[in-house]
């Protein structure tokens, strides 16, 4: 179950504010395995995995996560899934294994993959400057390459560190931002360092990459991912 821990932590979703450090009772939806035709021995193994997953979900919530829903599908048998949450969150929403959540920064993996696919197809190059694709939108963009966006060495300010951006990320503000607006929000701030000289995680990098993908293909990022 080594991969289970990583999956749980990735899939952990807050259904309320942060909980205290002390353990709390947990409401857990029993882990279940999709039904399929198998011999008795394999069914028993699947049941064991489901029990392990339910235990891990409980431990994750006990550690302070308000709620978690996770599904494991390794392609070698039925999927196993489980959900659990702290009781104080139930009034807001009773968590179920088939609930859907925004996947957040997991989309960076998809955007990076799409970028490298376009590189392989000779539609973009990792040494291309941001200025060549998004002229006039990023101050100093001539010195920032697509590779720097990918590996967070561009020096671009993270728009989620701006109070306006943070309010939307945390749900305090329901504003729907366009990529152009988020990029403009970030570039109001000074660059953190000379491009390529340091490393700093910035969501702005992948907003810019998404805009490059759309310009290079004439399609939306959502369409490209789908």
TrEMBL record:
It holds the Pfam family Beta-lactamase. InterPro entries: Beta-lactam-related (IPR001466), Beta-lactam/transpept-like (IPR012338), Diverse_Enzym_Activities (IPR050789). This is Beta-lactamase family protein. Keywords: Signal. Gene3D superfamilies: DD-peptidase/beta-lactamase superfamily. PANTHER family: BETA-LACTAMASE-RELATED (PTHR43283). Residues 1-23 form the signal peptide. Residues 54-225 form the Beta-lactamase-related domain.
């Amino acid at each position: 179950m080594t991969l289970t821990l990583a999956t749980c932590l990735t899939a952990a979703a807050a259904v309320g504010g942060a909980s205290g450090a002390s353990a709390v009772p947990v409401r857990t939806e029993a882990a279940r395995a999709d039904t399929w035709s198998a011999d008795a021995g394999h069914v028993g193994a699947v049941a064991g995995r489901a029990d392990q997953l339910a235990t891990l979900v409980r431990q994750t919530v006990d550690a302070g996560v308000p709620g978690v829903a996770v599904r494991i599908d390794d392609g070698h048998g039925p999927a196993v899934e489980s959900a659990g949450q702290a009781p104080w969150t139930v009034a807001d929403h009773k968590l179920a294994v088939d609930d859907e959540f925004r996947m957040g920064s997991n989309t960076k993996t998809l955007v990076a993959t799409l970028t490298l696919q376009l590189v392989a197809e000779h539609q973009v190059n990792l040494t291309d400057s941001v200025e060549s694709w998004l002229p006039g939108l990023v101050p100093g963009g001539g010195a920032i390459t697509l590779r720097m966006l990918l590996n967070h060495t561009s020096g671009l300010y993270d728009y989620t560190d701006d109070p306006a951006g943070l309010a939307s990320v945390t749900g305090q503000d329901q504003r729907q931002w366009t990529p152009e607006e988020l990029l403009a929000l970030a570039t109001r701030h000074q660059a953190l360092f000379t491009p390529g000289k340091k490393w700093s995680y910035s969501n702005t990098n992948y907003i810019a990459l998404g805009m490059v993908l759309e310009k290079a293909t004439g399609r939306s990022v959502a369409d490209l991912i789908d």
